[in-house]
Amino acid sequence: MQRPGPRDPHEVFNQPPPLSDYDPFGSDAALAEALQREGGGHGMDRVRAFARRVGSAEVLALGELANRHGPILHTRDRFGRRIDEIEFHPAWHELMRLGIEAGLHSLPWSDPRPGSHVLRAALVMLRHQVEEGVSCPLTMTFAAIPTLRLAPSLAADWEPRLLSNRYDPRTAPAAEKSGAIVGMAMTERQGGTDVRANTTRAAPGGPDGAWRLDGHKWFCSAPQSDAFLVLAQAGGGLTCFILPRVLPDGSRNAIHVQRLKDKVGNRSNASSEVEFHGALAWPVGPEGRGVASIMEMVRHTRLDCALGSAATLRRAVAEATHHAAHRDVSGAKLAAQPLMQNVLADLCLESEAATALAMRLARAFDGAAAGDLFERSFARVATAVAKYWITKRAVAAVAEALECTGGNGFVEESPLARLYRDVPVNAIWEGSGNVQCLDVLRALAREPEAAPALLTEIRAGASGEPRLAALADELAAAMSAAIPAEGSARVLVERIAVGLQASLLARHAPAAVADAFCASRLAGRGGLFGTLPPGCDLGAIVERATPRPAA
Ligand SMILES: Cc1cc2nc3c(=O)[nH]c(=O)nc-3n(C[C@H](O)[C@H](O)[C@H](O)COP(=O)(O)OP(=O)(O)OC[C@H]3O[C@@H](n4cnc5c(N)ncnc54)[C@H](O)[C@@H]3O)c2cc1C
Predict the structure, then answer these.
(1) What is the atom index within ligand 1 of the atom nearest the CA of 269?
(2) Which of 18, 25, 341, 453 is least surrounded, with the fewest CB atoms within 10 Å of its CB?
(3) Share of the chain above pLDDT 90, in %
């Protein structure tokens, strides 16, 4: 580049334009291809239109505002009466409305045609890139439906409002509202993973078949929800209940919000500590089968953790590649500097692989819902694999993407700062990393079809890729011998995840992407980003992922 002549020292130059008013779907070939491939092509126009909206400067600004002006808890009114109300910035409500009107809380249940999980997955990935916090209540409402359906009469009462595409944030009995949302409260002070240690008690004898709950929950996100699925100890053991926030007569249920958590990230979303003082709740599923009942919900929230982290990773890669395409350092664009190109290309690969795996998993949910036994077995084990791997890799990748934008990325005005604070949470909630790995071991031990499903899927991409065939053989041996010791679970799950991703990319991605992924991840490289071996077509990988201005 020709060095500019003397410039006005107050002129702003060599700073990239903000990445807004762009097309996050048209710029994301990996997502567009996956939507079509995995069975959501019928929603292509819908996704395109939604992407134009969420890529607009107006909607991106809502994400910033909702985070800058986080929720405020009001436990009492000015007369001292308990109200337990959460005050949100209007931007939060706008984002909730956007998500609910798009059906992100309901789509596979309200329009259960083939491919509806995949269509929803693409919409979730686009919306999540605007702002991570509102994904929590949208996901919980979506995921609550399979658990709620264990109690058909309760489901019949609640579903019309939970599946409604109207956002109605008023505090009122659910029956009087045009739409409702649901939260989940399992975690107590003494144990989140070990919910069997829950001490919250449930006693029968309330009005209309209700039970009375006494106890606490240490984490209860979206406490403004209209109802919560809650675990409590009944006489027959840990049981799942639905606990409305407002009772049918308009009075407030005895659930007290003690305080809001001051969190590292996920700041727009209210996460609270609550106490139940004889709160009325109705059993969902059999008494003593609370964990099994709520696991129906958790399976679906784990899918969304994988989708959400793939989305955050994609937004970070979009920001990093956009920055590098516009920023000159030492006379050349950053994107053209060989070492930066290696870092960017490596991040692009991670993003492509995360998107491909998360969208494939969404198809498994569609297949399982349609009664496909292979897809059911695959979904059972691959959910834990994807939840573990994608949420973990996204944390490292977002940190690296932030560094690509230099000091600008470390300043709160940058979207990367927020992504960096937000990204760890998907690895923690809904079962943290180790819990996912132990769940994979459990699935392999208990479900005879789990290992064959994983191996079939990995081998599907191995015909032209001997390194993947070798990995499949290694995994077959590891999974057919005694189930690996717990202490080695992360090694096994990492290898399975990489095998699944390599298989998808080998079958479906451009050669430059698939070759570089296999040459690095299957050959033991890829600890830190920017370590792709010589011979990879770095320019092609980065070019494919760099966002373009909206048409
Ligand atoms: C922002 C936020 C919002 C949340 N919202 C909700 C909510 O709405 N509802 C709700 O119910 N919960 C919620 N949670 C709680 C969350 O689900 C728990 O924090 C999580 O399940 C972990 O439980 P814990 O914090 O008690 O950690 P612990 O159970 O003490 O686990 C600590 C660590 O030990 C590991 N570990 C556990 N068991 C084993 C083992 N056998 N071997 C090896 N390692 C193990 C875990 O992987 C974890 O890394 C939220 C959490 C956060 C951060």
Answers:
(1) 1
(2) 18
(3) 95
